[in-house]
Amino acid sequence: MFPPAKMEASFDTEESFDDPSCLAPQPPVSPAKRQNVKEVKETKTTVNCVTFPLPGEGPEQQLLKPGDWSYCDYFWADKKDPQGAPCVPGIEVLIQKQLKGKTLQKEMAEFFHERIKIEEEYAKNLSKLSLSPLAAQEEGTLGEAWTQLKKSLHDEAEVHLKFSNKLHSEVEKPLLAFRGEHFKKDLKKYDHHISDLRKQLASKYAGVEKARKALADRQKDLEVKTQQLEVKLSNKTEEDIKKARRKSTQAGDDLMRSLDLYNQTQCKWFEEMVTSSMELEKLEVERIEFIQTHLRQYTTLRHETDMFNQSTVEPVDQLLQAVDPAKDRELWVQENKTGEVRPVDLDI
Description:
Helix content is 65%, strand content 2%.
């Protein structure tokens, strides 16, 4: 894990507090001199209480897992809603992906349930048809082939029934059982944990903004009193100036403490985001591999069904090849002949 780059303070004030020496009492700066103070260039922006570097500012950030398209590298910002609804945090996008996967997995199980019903109905109809008395009186080698053909229907019905049973136990049932009813509750722990950290981050950012305003107010008060002293418009003593300067320095200290608390909280949120997104990524890999395994099991069962169906047809093929019209004629004649003596002419 790589912690986020350390945040630099950038204040809308006349003085920076990155240098501790700036917190010490400073001599008054005249308005003329203040006009020559160069404004500090902003290098960062804060969106929804999370601070990001501005494009092109600072060193280029390296991906945590280059080339992997990992969740931990691409879901830091909140997703904007085109309809104007509240922004969706990146962790929520990942959680919704898991919930959608759970729904699709259930739909796949329903698909195989329908396939099982078709197979069972097909097997039932094949078995019923195999008992049909139609053409049952066919004789000879052709009759044997016809009888075997009807028997093959019964055997094929058994194959499809076994296929439907295996489809239920080895494909449909595992898909239904994978990540059961507690899965949604398990996902909520990621959502709640990260949401709590975001709330803490928002609170700490509000503290920074409050401290920033307090500092600006103290500096403005110090500036006004200093100007009044310079132009002799007030009876304020130098002691009043020192008191105002101490309050300004204290406000600066408070701001730095608030900023430190904010950065600590953001660092913790960063680390938890990396950990949680990697765990959700692992869950997605497991889901895909699990479904892939059971879809491949389905194709294996289909191949086996085709193979067994082929085995039921092979005896029919063999008997059909053995059908011999001459042999059938011989058998029929032997069984049904009425006499071998032929008529002769009548003599007077």
